[in-house]
Amino acid sequence: MKSIGPVLSVLIALVAIWYGATVWMNSGWTYDQAERKGLTPSFSEVVQDTMNQKRPRLPAPHQVAEELWKTTVEKKVTSKRSLVFHGWITLRATLMGFALGTALGIALAVAIVYSRVMEMSVMPWAVISQTIPIVALAPMIIVLSSSIGIEDRNVPKAIISAYLCFFPVLVGMVKGLRSPDAMQLDLLRTYGASGITSFLKLRLPTSVPYLFTSLKIGIAAALVGTIVGELPTGAIRGLGARILIGDQFGNPMMIWSALFAAAILAGALVTILGIVQNITLKRMGMAQ
Amino acid sequence: MTSVIQATDLALTFQTNDGPVHALKDINLEINKGDFVSFIGPSGCGKTTFLRVIADLEKPTAGEVTVNGVTPEQARKARAYGYVFQAAGLYPWRTIAGNIKLPLEIMGYSKADQAERVDRVLELVELSGFGKKFPWQLSGGMQQRASIARALAFDADILLMDEPFGALDEIVRDHLNEQLLQLWKRTNKTIGFVTHSIPEAVYLSTKIVVMSPRPGRIADVIESPLPKERPLDIRDTPEFLEIAHRVREGLRAGHADD
After folding, report:
1. What ipTM was reported for this prediction?
2. What are the backbone dihedrals phi and psi of residue B161, each rounded to the nearest 5 degrees, phi first?
3. Fewest beta carbons less than 10 Å away: which of A279, B178, B208, B257?
4. Host domain of residue B35
């Protein structure tokens, strides 16, 4: 809880900069309007106007907060205008992708740690896979999956999300499974332990701290993947779709509130994983 | 006296980028059942390497070594020895009892047998009542005792110890040395013990193997005339000092050609 002070000061500074930018970016429109009406507004009138425009270039923080409030608390969660509804759509695909990506990442890591051939052949491709811009790949995955007859819109989104999230899990787990030192492995050798035994009794438990670090990066990547996957689908549901629609209809409040909803969702997911990590590592006697 | 470990013309050469390193050369040694053998020498004399060869953690490049009359590999698979490393290496996610059970689980002992053995070895290393504690709750010396208990839990006749007390302070070390002698007397194990410390080697051993580096070889083998019963103050007796002197001479001779 010691971090609350610094975090709050940064937050206050950010909000202050944001308000400053709101005045600066929206005042052009205010002056245009005033000129048409033949008025010369005072500075305080200008400031007031920039904070409350219907279609501002940059909405003020309180406008975004108000929009967030209206689209979450004041709307039924089943409504198409509710961010909870859209957030759930995105979350579902994210969790599917996260599960898929984590499973793939762990499986590949095990293969790489135990097989030199796998390491030589798979690892470079895993690295290359992450250099391809996901925005270029996403439409292809969507087209391909619909052309092979997958009706469920969640599947291509989950695949894109898994594509981004398997890599940190793979890298972290390779490092984690290799983290037992030579002495520990020698000890198991003196017991005549089999490969599978030393995997289950030593390598897997020692890799747990590495796994959690990777999972936290992975789940954030999975959420980004899902949102990117929602952009080119012409989807009408999900946070990505809200951002796209807001852009097309010139509704900045919609974009910004969806953006914040995504950030809050990512923060919540990472926090939950962090709590699980703390509890698990404490119980395993490995807390830092 | 039955011979437990026998090395004949043993040599081990590591191939490195800077050319071959002769870790062991012309090693001939016989260790009898119930012996407490210390290996002492400066860094690079091959004492740890020799212990690792006996334990089948390294393969010799020439010569022969037998453990209980068979190859080290067969002996390892027959679980003929317990190995204690310099670091305790306990698993932080297991309790002390859980750590001691590790080899027992791997070797397939029954649950009841496991519990009974854990109690027995905890008592041997004077850690009764600490079974439910986690490693981080114990001091360094206690952790090392737990790791010795782990090596004793299964029925290996040979205990190989690679500088087990090297990382501990002198007072703890004295205490553990005393305990180790008690334990050796009670269990009648054959112990191979690597150390840097002359007093430790003389105090513990029935046989002291003095080694010298480049190439790693045996400089002297001293059969200790000290009785089996050894209180700590035996270290002030003339017999003790005489052996210590001979060990020091052996170490110096090994360095003369540097």
Report:
1. 0.86
2. -125, 120
3. B257
4. 3-80+156-256
